[in-house]
Amino acid sequence: MYGKQHPSPPLTHPPHILLHTHNSRRLVKRVYIPLPDAPARLAIVHHLLHGQRHALTNNELGYLVNATSGYSGSDLAALCREAAMVAIRELGPRVASVPANQVRPIRLSDFSSAIQAIRPSVSMEQLGKYESWTKMYGMSAAGG
Q1: Which of 9, 38, 62, 80 has the fewest other C-beta atoms within 10 Å?
Q2: Has residue 5 got a pLDDT over 90?
Q3: pTM exceeds 0.85, yes or no
């Protein structure tokens, strides 16, 4: 019955109902999620460094958190990857023969180098525009 002339069964709902249902699932709500504050950045860095060998003290972690104001979660992930790569790059051609547990721990100096390469992806000007747009048209993650 549903051969070449009828490839699928007939619709059970009128097309305008289907269109409305289809479109309502496609309308995306825009929600502004602010950049992580200092405690959130600390939690993110802790999470990203979990399982990694590092020699960062609590004071150094505090310095790192202050130095990364304006960084997003993905910026922090890139920063941690780059800091880990500093120690690996120091191995040079020996990188293929050195066991992972023999690579030195990540240090604050590695993060200082990484901060030179990994900058915040959102400028303060862009951030202001997002906040203004949210006040006028959107919602914030806090429910505003």
Answers
A1: 9
A2: no
A3: no
